[in-house]
Amino acid sequence: MSYRNLQIWQLARLLVIDVHNMSLNLPVFEKFEVGSQIRRSVKSVKSNIVEGYGRRRYKQEYIRFMVFALSSNDETIDHLETLYETKSLKNEELYQDLHKRTKQLGIKINNFLQSIEKNHNKFDDLNDYMDTK
User: Fold this and answer.
1) Which of 57, 72, 82, 112 is at a distance of 20 to 30 A from 51, taking alpha carbons?
2) For the CA atoms of the chain, what is the radius of gyration?
3) Longest dimension (CA), the chain
4) CA-based angle 22:2:110, to the nearest 5?
5) Could you give phi then psi for residue 6, rounded to 5 degrees?
6) pLDDT tens digits, 50-106
């Protein structure tokens, strides 16, 4: 079993790619301000999922890193909204897509976190959150 099988990691991975690409098309002044911040926050979501998974034997550590992932996801949503509201991100369709996917990821991370809190010693129950394709 690998963190790569986690649905939340897979969703985060795709968001990292898409947010990164979106940020490179921002106005020059935003690439190094909010663009840099949003790239770091979305990459932090994925990295914290990986680090938490690596510490999954220790319930409190696992929870801690999933909370970090959720917090970074919230930060990403905030940066995305700021970019759109300030018209630095003008493509409404792209904004709506990224916003929707980021919010959905937050819901999934939260559900995963609740599952860890309730079923930490029942790793089989966590397989509901794994994509074993």
Assistant:
1) 82
2) 15
3) 49
4) 60
5) -70, 130
6) 999 999 999 999 999 999 999 999 999 999 999 999 999 999 999 999 999 999 999
CB 115 within 8 A of CB 8: no
Determine the Cα–Cα distance for residues 110 and 89; give it in Å rounded to an integer. 27
As a whole number of angstroms, the distance between CA 32 and CA 71 comes to 22
CB 106 within 8 A of CB 80: no
CA atoms within 13 A on the CB side of 18: 17
Distance of CA 56 to the CA centre of its chain: 18
CB 36 within 8 A of CB 76: no
Residue 92 CA to residue 119 CA, distance in Å, equals: 40
**Tokens at 52, concatenated:** 């938490």
What's the pTM value of the predicted model, to 2 decimals?
A: 0.89
CA 77-73-75 angle, 5° bins: 55
Structure tokens at 117: 């809190």
SS3 of residue 130 by DSSP: strand
